């Protein structure tokens, strides 16, 4: 393994290590009120566009890094949509947002819609 590939692998592992606690805490507490929905949306749009560039590169650590980053960003956006009430300014936790998504089928629709948007953007 050359130095560049090694640096890519280390970078990917560091990213995983730094984002895992955020995702675990969000799932454990069901509180995503500290995240801005605008930020999460823009991050996902940016990831979709950046995917075009990443796919033009030879397979390597950047593909894994981008896959993980895109997955984490999409997951956090889906949690924010699910656990934040509609019309809220981005503040609010699961108790306030569950009126909008009363059952699992609603969450499943959000997940399917999110992945449909991401796959459409990345395959275009």
UniProtKB/TrEMBL annotation:
Transmembrane parts of this sequence: 6-27, 39-56, 62-83
Q: Which Gene3D superfamilies match?
A: 1.20.1280.290
The lineage's top-level taxon is: Bacteria
Task: For this UniProt record, give its keywords in alphabetical order, as a comma-separated list.
Answer: Membrane, Transmembrane, Transmembrane helix
What's the protein called, per UniProt?
A: PQ-loop repeat-containing protein
């Amino acid at each position: 393994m050359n130095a560049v590939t090694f640096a890519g692998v280390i970078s990917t592992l560091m990213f995983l290590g730094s984002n895992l606690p955020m995702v675990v805490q969000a799932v454990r507490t069901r509180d995503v009120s500290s995240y801005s929905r605008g930020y999460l949306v823009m991050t996902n749009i940016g990831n979709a566009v950046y995917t075009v560039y990443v796919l033009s590169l030879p397979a390597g650590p950047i593909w894994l890094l981008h896959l993980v980053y895109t997955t984490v960003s999409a997951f956090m956006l889906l949690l924010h949509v699910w656990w934040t009430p509609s019309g809220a300014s981005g503040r609010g936790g699961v108790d306030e947002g569950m009126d909008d998504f009363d059952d699992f089928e609603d969450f499943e629709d959000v997940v399917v819609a999110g992945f449909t948007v991401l796959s459409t953007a990345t395959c275009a």
